[in-house]
Amino acid sequence: MQPPSIGSAAELEALTPLQRQRAEPVILHHDPYTNLAPAGWALDPADPGRFLLYVGRFRGNHSIGADVAVYSGDCRDPCTLRFENVVLAPGESGSEDELGVRFGSVVQAGGSLYHYYVGNRPDTGAQVVMLAVSEDGRRFTKQGTVLAPDGVHEHYFTDPTVVIIEGTWFLYVTGKSAEKLPDLGIVVYASDDGIAWRRTGVTAIPMGGPGDCDGKYIEGCGVCRFGDDVVALYTCCSRADVWSVGMAWGTDPMAPFSKTARNPVFQRSAAGWDSGGVAVPLLVSYPSGRSVLYYQGSVQQQPADTWDIGALQVAAAPPSDG
Q1: What is the three-class DSSP state of 264?
Q2: Cβ atoms within 10 Å of 161's Cβ, excluding its own
Q3: pTM of the full predicted structure?
Q4: DSSP state, 320?
Q5: 3-state SS assignment for residue 188
Q6: Which residues pair with 132 in a beta bridge?
Q7: 10 Å Cβ neighbour count for 1?
Q8: Are residues 277 and 288 in contact, defined by beta-carbon separation less than 8 angstroms?
Q9: Burial 205-233 (b: 16+ CB within 10 A, else e)
Q10: Which of 275, 321, 273 shows the shortest CA–CA distance to 78?
Q11: Which of 39, 61, 69, 219 is the right S-S partner for 174, CB 3.0 to 4.6 Å?
């Protein structure tokens, strides 16, 4: 029997641990980009029956030369994806993304697509959150840096994700300490327009304890809504350097989330292309009710520098969706 569409965090939790249905990835890396990761999605502005999946592409396990490409697909066939073009490339000399662009997230608002991503300041190396805007999802205009760490609460940022709730924009981003480790948890910023951000002081998802799946650090968070619940799926790293996917949620976007007792909700396979680790979860929920989890997986033990992208159906659309 197909799983039903999801209406709440409790319904999503009941479907965990998530089970893969495919033995192969849906997007394979190609040299020189050996490291692929989901970087947001949107319904195609030109055809709402299709979707756009953004993919961060890295040369190994670093950001230098990294870019973001877009793949397109049919909402009824989320595992068949076609490469279209590069939408974000490293900036000009002296820009805050001249070294490369790190993946982030995409949110649709007012007829435009807002793509949040991470750049590296060339003088200090500090990671900042930057913004690019598009109307068609394929040609983006960079707007520059919209959020920089203050060097007190966070020293570096990575993996931003944005959700709009009742007119307020919330940015969930991994905070890094001065040691450049993602050990400060997922912190929350708020905005009235998606451009000017204010610090809330809230850590939505803190690191776990020594024996937890997220006991070493957490990053790569993807946030979405199911009913009144704000749900986050995120990358866990244990002290044994095992990468998996965790889940946390709440009803207040500016309050700490509760982690599920079922963590990790998705784990590496026993053998195969993602037996080394799974990370950077992106849960895509189509208007039909179908939900698909895209993630990166590696056959290598950590730290890995070769990652492909896999997909699994979490919830099916109603029969009328086809």
Answers
A1: coil
A2: 25
A3: 0.95
A4: G
A5: strand
A6: 115, 142
A7: 4
A8: no
A9: bbbbeeebbbbbbbbbbbbbbbeebbbbb
A10: 321
A11: 219
Q: How many residues does the chain have?
A: 322
Give the helix, strand, coil percentages of the chain, each rounded to 5.
Answer: 5, 50, 45
Which amino acid is it at 114?
Y
Angle (nearest 5°) at CA 211 between 215 and 247: 55
Decide: 237 and 301 in contact? Cβ < 8 Å: no
> In angstroms, rounded to a whole number, what is the distance separating the alpha carbons of residues 28 and 2?
27
Q: Which residue has the tokens 């450049």?
A: 180
- Rounded CA-CA distance 267/140 in Å is 34
Question: Which residue type occupies 184?
Answer: L
C-alpha atoms less than 13 angstroms from C-alpha of 300 in its C-beta half-sphere: 12
Amino acid at 108: Q
Hey, what are 132's tokens?
Answer: 């690019």
**CA-based nearest residue to 88, from 61, 110, 117:** 117
- Written out in words, the top-level CATH class of the domain with range 9-15+31-302 is mainly beta
Boundaries of every domain in the chain: 9-15+31-302
For 33, 45, 50, 233, the CA distances from 72, given in Å and listed in that order, are: 19, 12, 7, 23
Only one residue has tokens 């890295």, namely: 58
Tokens 């919209």 sit at which residue?
Answer: 146
Question: For each of the chain's 322 residues, which pLDDT tens digit applies?
Answer: 345 678 999 999 999 999 999 999 999 999 999 999 999 999 999 999 999 999 999 998 888 889 999 999 999 999 999 999 999 999 999 899 998 998 899 999 999 999 999 998 877 777 899 999 999 999 999 999 999 999 899 988 999 999 999 999 999 999 999 888 888 999 999 999 999 999 999 999 999 999 999 999 999 889 999 999 999 999 999 999 999 999 999 999 999 999 999 999 999 999 999 999 999 999 999 888 889 999 999 999 888 999 999 999 998 876 655 4
Answer for the pair 172, 224: CB distance below 8 angstroms, yes or no.
no
Cβ atoms of 312 and 292 within 8 Å: the answer is: yes
